[in-house]
Design goal:
A two-stranded antiparallel ribbon has the order 1-2. By secondary structure, it is mainly alpha-helical.
């Protein structure tokens, strides 16, 4: 645990695999489970940027309103279609 702590303090951005490599260079014969088990009570976590996939890119979803300047004065001038459920032989598409 002492050697894991020393490596973590020197390199807080590396994971358990690289810690295993560092420990084998020091002469310890360990695997990743042997490194992860004592790291949990010590609360050692790597620091790296986590991608935020829940935020949508506003520039990516820019759907223009095509009927903005159109005055609908007659029948059948503007239609709306919903093709969410298209039945096929094996179910829906």
């Amino acid at each position: 645990m002492l050697e894991i702590d020393k490596i973590y303090l020197k390199y807080p951005f590396i994971g358990s695999r690289i810690v295993v490599d560092q420990l084998t260079k020091l002469g310890f014969h360990v695997n990743s489970k042997r490194v992860k088990r004592p790291s949990r009570p010590m609360r050692l976590e790597t620091f790296y940027p986590i991608p935020n996939t829940s935020k949508a890119d506003p520039a990516k979803y820019n759907y223009p309103y095509l009927l903005k300047n159109l005055k609908i004065e007659k029948i059948n001038l503007a239609w709306a279609v919903d093709i969410a459920d298209v039945p096929i032989k094996t179910g829906f598409m």
